[in-house]
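Retro notes, structure queue

What went well: the backlog is down to a handful. What didn't: a couple of records were mislabeled last round, so from now on we paste the full input next to the output in the thread. Example, using Glycine cleavage system H protein from Medicago truncatula:
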Amino acid sequence: MALRMWASSTANALKLSSSSSRLHLSPPFSISRCFSTVLDGLKYASSHEWVKHEGSVATIGITDHAQDHLGEVVFVELPEPGGSVTKGNGFGAVESVKATSDVNSPISGEIVEVNDKLTGKPGLVIHSFTHSLSFLGQEDQLKPI
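Corresponding output:
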């Protein structure tokens, strides 16, 4: 009898259950961890945008971490070339089946070019490194990132 009570209390403590002669272990907690790819030559903002500076032009995109959390992208809102953006302000949006996320500019500058392929095929944001906007900006604007 004592052995049966000990086995029962041990099973309860370990969250073991017996049904149809099968034992199931239910962990009391789970741990998951997300990892992002960090690429050379890019500077990252805490708001999940990156900047790649090449001469007097900077290219801006969203991190793979942001892309993973968005899931399947269904719509991308891009600014018009010739416009300007201010550091810390939104300049576009990425809409997925899960959520809509604003894209903030980590630098100030003039928009020289946008990736127009994204308007017709927004899913390219997830599959293409060139999901970016090009800005004319000064290199010293990139240092605070």
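Agreed that this is the format going forward. Reviewer comment attached to the example: Residues 2-13 form the longest helix (12 residues).
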